[in-house]
Amino acid sequence: MQAYTEKMREIARRLLKECRVETVIGFRKGSMPMMNEPCLVKSIDDVDQLVWDGNCGINLANYLTNRTDKIAVFAKGCDSRNIVTHIIENKIKREQLVIIGVPCKGMIDKRRIRSMAPGEITEVVEDGENVRVRGADFEKSFPRKDMLQSNCAVCIHRNPVIYDELVADLVPEQQNVDRYEDVRAIEAMSPDERWQFFEDLLAPCIRCYACRNACPLCYCPTCFVDESAPQWVGKSQNPVDVRTFHFLRAYHCAGRCTDCGSCERACPMGINMRMFTKKLEKEALDQWGWEAGLSLDQRPPLDWYRPDDPQDFIK
Amino acid sequence: MTYILIDKSQWAGGLAAAEKAYRLFGPVQQGAMSNFAPLAPGQTPDLDGLNTRMSARSVVYPQSEILFEYSLDPQDPEANVLRETPPPPKPAAAVGIRPCDAYSFLLVRRNFDAPDVKDVYWLRNYEATTFIGLACDQPGGTCFCTSAGCGPYSEQGLDVLLKDTGEAYLAKVITAKGTAFMAAAGWSTDAPADSEAQFDRGKEAAEAKIVSTVETDRLAEIPQMALYDADFWDEIAFSCINCGTCTYLCPTCWCFDIQDEVHGKHGIRERNWDSCMFPLFTLHGSGHNPRGQKVQRVRQRFMHKLKYYVDKYGNGIQCVGCGRCIQYCPVNIDIRKVCQLMNRFGQDASCKVA
User: Fold this and answer.
1) Do both A72 and A207 map to the same domain?
2) How crowded is the C-beta side of B185, counted as CA atoms within 13 Å?
3) Which of B58, B243, B324 to probe the A interface (max A CBs under 10 A)?
4) A62 lies in a domain?
5) For a FRET experiment, which of B17, B114, B116, B170 has its CA 20 to 30 Å from that of A137?
6) For the whole model, what pTM was predicted?
7) How many CB pairs under 8 A join A and B?
């Protein structure tokens, strides 16, 4: 990871020096273990803030929306796919961007590591194939591959799909991954079981909207839950309103979601709301062979009609 | 000051007895996290965790609270009459609340119990609650309570402070409300003569474990508009996604939104927590929004907690140092760093956000 960081600083310094970009969007080291902070670097003097490790799970495409400057942005596989989606949806122009590709080995799951540590964690070091976790009176080491965010564990697009620079050689993509085991488990439930599953899933939701706001797809000028004239959704903790928010948000992401995991990562309550978006991601794949954000040349399935589109759903 | 010894073998029985007179709240394990919630009959609070994910705010000030109901049905003899939500039948007790959370109610009270305006709903709940605190012997890495007006053994806002001694809880009974709760629980064993010394030693040891601090000494003297116009807000706000995590997890955030909801012919008026991070928070009926940009909202949150409150009440910052916003901010915006930037404003030219 140190090699990534050094290369990133070198590229950022060069791009700023050559005035090819006005700003660089990346991560700087956070104030807590397993947390980094997205940052905007404008000056060569600040380039050394930039870091990279397994705690850069927030999707940086989210910080590009409607910007007007010339930007260099670091993009792992999922970020790059959301950048493609952003370009297709006219939220940023390709010409404004210098995309610095970051071949990704998966982000580490801070909740999982916290749950496996016997006490408060004071330091987490990624050491090649292992993650070393230290606290005041313990030290543990876990294989890194077992500590990945659940979306990263089944990711088959670790390499950026679009880039102008690379911070390292491309990494081998994961093969023979069963991406939808969890979705199939829910599909196999009876309607009552499934209802209960979603009830339990959403029970801790406090409607802070961290999932929505961490999502690069959620850029509506006014989200439907924030409309006040007319008001579509109640504001309370009423489960009907909580559900309405999550269901509708998921549908708005259909055919667009890259399963980057920012929503789940951002949630202060640890809710895996990806179970909604992932089902729709699977539907888009099953119905149209579509995976979002892989190419600038294809329109997403929900804003395009082809005569040979499957129509089995019309009953 | 009275000290009482509660052997842990008497703990569940005492709570069961107290349950007859009180609605008990406490930390409860919910999936992978612990939250402050009503205790089920016979349930004991989970006192092993450091602090709950959500603060104890909801004991007094629920996230959604129905203020009154009404019927729009002309056949209903009480049509168009506002029926206030009756007060709960029994007083409440927050068992195992941490000193920082208990102290937060004193800060929030300045807003809800002002000389000119009284919030009857908040006050009704607050006055009906007894706070049974648990001293923090193992504060966390993001706890900075000692520089935020309280501390791991702070008694402010508490009726009883418990200290876990291993086999027993040593209880320091601070107020008459605390005495009444201890009587209801049937705990009356005289504590050892060195109880006061045990609390003193515990306090000293726990405070020594606090590794995190904030500087607040200059906040009051720096002119408001100078801080408002400070050059660091854009950089602080850049990563912010404007979610409500910090404000909803905060024990001292008090803002709310009033909503009327009508289903058929039945209506309710309720109030829900609101968040200054949300664009809707300040949206005017005209469509104008004085805090239309993210940076304005981020500035508002920190200025309110660390400057406006300081200036208005002259009694420290509107923060108890519980560290929740630091722990759970999705993008690691750290109030300790922001507080330092604000406190050193104009003094330390090399002061950087990072």
Assistant:
1) no
2) 31
3) B243
4) yes
5) B170
6) 0.95
7) 111
